[in-house]
């Protein structure tokens, strides 16, 4: 193979950069339009309940960026969405529709916490590492069970992972109600993990911790794993065309189970980050449905790690904005739930072909 | 022709799909009572044009005239009311219903909510007899052969009293004998006063069936010619826009040692029924062995066994002396096998992935592309660009999603990937299926080149002319067995056809 001339390579680089920018733009235009449409519907709703949409939206959209505290809280809310989002990116790219991120995160959080108050003699960094490993294994095994069920008995993983959410949450509920209950806690929770494993805040007094950095590392690792390794290429080929992957010599069963394990492991780590950063113990009600919010973020981000990362922040901004809006204006918090619902409905309604053509035209004109 | 009145006339018909102009100001005139062939390569706009006549697609510009009067055809139902029937390439039949029930689906004879089975069967039988299309109206469609199913489709169209019948590549799925019969049926329809538009890209059929033909290329009608005035070479030139090399010239190659050896192979289908029984064959270096046969006679399974995608139940497979009978795909490939899967969108490529990733499918163990399991995007891209150039894959960059390419170029991606592993044995299953004349020619040229380079090639094809023109030796499969073996030089269309139909077998004792 002959090397192209320098000019050739320059041109190639330019087209590559252009293509890269276009794909990023492609990944963002659709969700942005979806959100814009949902927000416009929101205006109608706010007016309908007799409130001022300008004041409400000011608090909703810009409240998170007014000061370091609110901004930090936004980042704190984004953290678990990033990990559960990456959990979905990996599984869905591999053709495994893992919607059990919530349950995998619960088990990761619980067993991570158990490790955190058991190995109290370990120094901070080692203990943090131990908690992460235990949480990853717990979440990973839970997801891999669904993967194995699908690989060997063709049990639909959508059903199994969804139902295993309830099993996981009821199991942790049982433990915190019985063996692992901290009687001094007002709610079902374990005792505190050793304080050397508490993740330090990075924008005090806000809630954001170095857990955010761990989540960002996971996002980068997800991208690398899926798009720069042979394993990731095989996972994606099994996910896009299983029979093609077989013909290329990929062991699709093993790959499926591995995919589910990694996916569940990341959800589990997400749970451990919440334990180490926020509650410092396993608290049964710690998640307002992070697993499902991450699912939405990943789908809005088109299963692209960067798109999902962006959507996790955007979604966190919505959640945080809703909280601020509730404090600053009389608009009720459930409005944001309604907006969320609208977003999901629009997203699943597939406005895509037409939008795709719009984008395609602009792309080829450029 | 006694009448010259035009039944169907198209004026300036244009259809765009986004930026693609499928049909570009097409004028076409079809005379009452003629058989008019519409020929052209895939993507030339034939089917789209006819879908507009049938009301499935609506033209952006232009008008459709029936017997001189402009009409707007909004739906297939409207087309039926205008006396236009169409038989699609993929049949639209309900397998669990009888032929008669399919023919009258939605308009069951009799009144009230009850089905009148016997009456429908009687009417279907009458209809079949009138046009000389023998079928069993009471038989369930799923038990009918492809040729018989096609007759049901034709009868269905005729039951609407169609005057103009459009057949979209009707012979693509038929055996030579069935094709022969279909051509007779079409001629019979003409004597009954019907007009037929026959879409095809097979040149010999144009000559056999049509009174006149129109050639489409790149969405434009190039010419309309009386069949008697053109040779096959003329038609091909008009379709492709350049001279086409028909007879592949095979250089003399002295076959080397046996590289693929299959002995006494038997195995099952996915549903557990027997697919392949006691098949033995050998392919030498520098030799093309063709496996002919009507699809569904065990060829697909034979290919899967030889590739290691499924384990056979008995027998032995050896690649260059190495036994791989029950080994997995990776072992087969390591032993020197490469394969072109029969359905490229199924096992050949992952359409959603890029050209470079599809090319790399079998090369990820190559440290030049993925050192230590980590893909080097730069090296992958350069390597892919080299293959795109070498195999002349058009409109492709390494990042193009494969599904954006045409069928011929997708097949080039498959060939580029498989041949770049420098295999000893190449299994090519239906390598030119669905490809147009130009792309088929290029695939055939590639196979001949590979033969010259001393590869052993097993060609599995239901396209008899392909087997005949490329192979050195020919095997015929019927009912999972090899029923005939012959040097290609001694084989003829008709002779092989009898074996393909199961009417003859070398092993007379076992013949069904």
CATH topology of the largest domain in chain B: Rossmann fold
The H/E string of chain A reads HHHHHHHHHHHHHH
- Estimated share of beta-strand residues of chain A: under 5%
Largest sheet of chain B: 6 strands, mixed
Q: CATH superfamily assignment of the largest domain in chain B?
A: P-loop containing nucleotide triphosphate hydrolases
Radius of gyration of chain A: 22 Å
Q: How many angstroms does the end-to-end distance of chain A come to?
A: 31 Å
Give me the number of helical elements of chain B: 17
Decide which structural class fits the backbone of chain A. mainly alpha
**So, CATH architecture of the largest domain in chain A?**
Orthogonal Bundle
Gross morphology of chain A is globular
* Total beta strand runs of chain B: 20
Using the CA coordinates, give the radius of gyration of chain B.
Answer: 25 Å
Largest sheet of chain A: none
Give the chain pair forming the largest contact, with residue counts: A-B, 27 and 32 residues
Helix content of chain B: 25-40%
CATH architectural label of the largest domain in chain B: 3-Layer(aba) Sandwich
What shape does the CA trace of chain B take?
globular
Give, in spatial order, the strands making up the sheet with the most strands of chain B: 6-7-8-3-9-10
At the third CATH level, what is the topology name of the largest domain in chain A?
ABC transporter involved in vitamin B12 uptake, BtuC
What can you tell me about this protein's structure?
Chain A is mainly alpha-helical and 366 residues long. Chain A has 2 domains: 1-49 and 336-366; 67-331, Orthogonal Bundle (ABC transporter involved in vitamin B12 uptake, BtuC). Chain A is 75% helix and 0% strand. Chain A has 14 helices and no strands. Chain A has helices at residues 6-48, 53-62, 68-93, 101-118, 124-153, 157-177, 211-228, 230-240, 242-247, 252-279, 290-300, 305-328, 334-348, 352-365. The two termini of chain A are 31 Å apart. The model of chain A is unreliable at 1-7 and 350-366 (pLDDT under 50). Chain B is α/β, with parallel strands linked by helices and 512 residues long. Chain B has 3 domains: 6-240, P-loop containing nucleotide triphosphate hydrolases (Rossmann fold, 3-Layer(aba) Sandwich), CATH 3.40.50.300; 247-336 and 424-512, Rossmann fold; 351-422, no CATH class. Chain B is 32% helix and 25% strand. Chain B contains 17 helices and 20 strands. Chain B has a 6-stranded mixed sheet, with helices on both faces. In chain B, strands 16-17-18-13-19-20 form a 6-stranded mixed sheet, sandwiched between helices. In chain B, a hairpin with a 2-residue loop joins strand 1 (6-17) and strand 2 (20-31). In chain B, helix 14 runs parallel beside helix 15. At the A-B interface, helix 8, helix 9 and helix 14 of A face helix 10, helix 11 and helix 13 of B.
């Amino acid at each position: 193979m002959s090397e192209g001339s320098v000019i050739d390579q320059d041109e190639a680089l330019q087209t590559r950069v252009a293509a890269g920018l276009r794909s990023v733009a492609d990944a963002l235009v659709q969700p942005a339009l979806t959100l814009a449409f949902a927000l416009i519907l929101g205006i109608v709703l706010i007016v309908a309940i007799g409130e001022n949409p300008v004041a409400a939206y000011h608090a909703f959209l810009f409240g998170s960026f007014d000061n370091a505290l609110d901004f930090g809280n936004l980042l704190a809310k984004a953290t678990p969405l990033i990990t559960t989002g990456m959990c979905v990116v990996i599984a869905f790219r591999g053709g495994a529709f893992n919607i059990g991120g919530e349950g995998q995160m619960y088990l990761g959080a619980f067993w991570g916490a158990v490790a955190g108050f058991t190995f109290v003699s370990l120094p901070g960094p080692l203990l943090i590492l131990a908690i992460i490993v235990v949480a990853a294994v717990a979440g990973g095994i839970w997801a891999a069970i669904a993967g194995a069920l699908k690989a060997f008995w063709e049990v639909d993983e959508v059903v199994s992972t969804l139902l295993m959410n309830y099993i996981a949450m009821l199991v942790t509920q049982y433990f915190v109600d019985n063996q692992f209950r901290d009687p001094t806690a007002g709610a079902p929770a374990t005792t505190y993990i050793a304080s050397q494993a508490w993740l330090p805040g990075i924008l005090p007094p806000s809630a954001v911790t170095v857990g955010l950095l761990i989540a960002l590392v996971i996002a980068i690792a997800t991208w690398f794993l899926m798009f720069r390794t042979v394993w990731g290429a095989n996972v994606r080929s099994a996910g896009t065309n299983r029979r093609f992957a077989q013909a290329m010599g990929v062991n699709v069963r093993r790959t499926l189970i591995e995919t589910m394990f990694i996916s569940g492991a990341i959800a589990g780590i997400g749970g451990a980050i919440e334990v180490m950063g926020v509650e410092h113990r396993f608290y049964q009600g710690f998640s307002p449905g992070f697993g499902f919010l991450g699912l939405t973020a990943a789908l809005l981000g088109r299963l692209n790690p960067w798109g999902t990362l962006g959507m996790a922040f955007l979604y966190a901004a919505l959640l945080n904005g809703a909280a601020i809006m509730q404090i600053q204006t009389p608009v009720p918090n459930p409005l944001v739930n309604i907006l969320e619902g609208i977003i999901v409905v629009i997203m699943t309604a597939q406005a895509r072909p037409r939008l795709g053509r719009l984008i395609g035209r602009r792309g080829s004109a450029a | 022709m006694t009448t010259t009145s035009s039944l169907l006339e198209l004026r300036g018909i244009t259809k765009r799909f986004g930026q693609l102009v499928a049909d570009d100001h097409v004028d076409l005139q079809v005379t009452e009572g003629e058989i008019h062939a519409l020929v052209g390569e895939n993507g030339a706009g034939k089917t789209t044009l006819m879908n507009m006549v049938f009301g499935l697609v609506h033209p952006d510009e232009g008008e459709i005239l029936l017997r001189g009067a402009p009409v707007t055809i909004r739906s297939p139902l409207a087309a039926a009311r205008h006396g236009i029937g169409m038989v699609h390439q993929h049949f639209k039949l309900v397998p669990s219903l009888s032929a008669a029930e399919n023919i009258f689906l939605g308009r069951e004879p009799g009144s009230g909510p009850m089905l009148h089975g016997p009456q429908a069967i009687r009417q279907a039988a009458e209809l079949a007899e009138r046009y000389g299309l023998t079928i069993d109206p009471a038989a369930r469609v799923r038990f009918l052969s492809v040729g018989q199913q096609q007759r049901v489709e034709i009868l269905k169209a005729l039951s609407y009293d169609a005057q103009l019948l459009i057949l979209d590549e009707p012979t693509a799925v038929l055996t030579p004998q069935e094709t022969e019969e279909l051509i007779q049926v079409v001629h019979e329809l003409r004597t009954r006063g019907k007009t037929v538009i026959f879409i095809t890209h097979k040149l010999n059929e144009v000559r056999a069936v049509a009174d006149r033909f129109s050639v489409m290329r790149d969405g434009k009608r190039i010419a309309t010619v009386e069949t008697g005035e053109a040779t096959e070479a003329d038609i091909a030139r008009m379709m492709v826009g350049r001279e086409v090399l028909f007879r592949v010239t095979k250089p003399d190659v002295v076959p080397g040692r046996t590289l693929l050896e299959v002995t006494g192979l038997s195995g099952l289908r996915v549903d557990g029924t027997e697919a392949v029984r006691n098949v033995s064959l050998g392919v030498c270096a520098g030799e093309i062995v063709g496996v002919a046969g009507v699809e569904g006679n065990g060829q697909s399974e034979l290919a899967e066994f030889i590739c290691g995608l499924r384990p056979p139940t008995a027998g032995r497979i050896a690649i260059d002396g190495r036994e791989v009978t029950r080994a997995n795909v990776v072992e087969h490939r390591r032993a020197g096998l490469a394969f072109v899967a029969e359905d490229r969108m199924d096992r050949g490529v992952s359409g959603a992935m890029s050209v470079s990733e599809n090319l790399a499918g079998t090369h990820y163990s190559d440290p030049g592309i993925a050192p230590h399991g980590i893909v080097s995007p730069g090296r992958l891209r350069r390597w892919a660009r080299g293959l795109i150039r070498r195999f002349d894959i058009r409109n492709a960059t390494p990042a193009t999603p494969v599904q954006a390419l045409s069928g011929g170029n997708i097949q080039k991606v498959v060939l580029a990937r498989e041949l770049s592993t420098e295999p000893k044995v190449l299994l090519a299953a239906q390598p030119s299926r669905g490809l147009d004349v130009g792309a088929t020619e290029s695939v055939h040229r590639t196979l001949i080149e590979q033969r010259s380079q001393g590869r052993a090639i097993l060609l599995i094809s239901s396209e008899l002319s392909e087997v005949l023109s490329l192979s050195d030796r020919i095997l015929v499969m019927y009912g999972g067995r090899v029923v005939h073996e012959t040097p290609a030089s001694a084989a003829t269309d008709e002779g092989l056809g009898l074996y393909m139909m199961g009417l003859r077998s070398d092993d007379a004792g076992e013949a069904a």
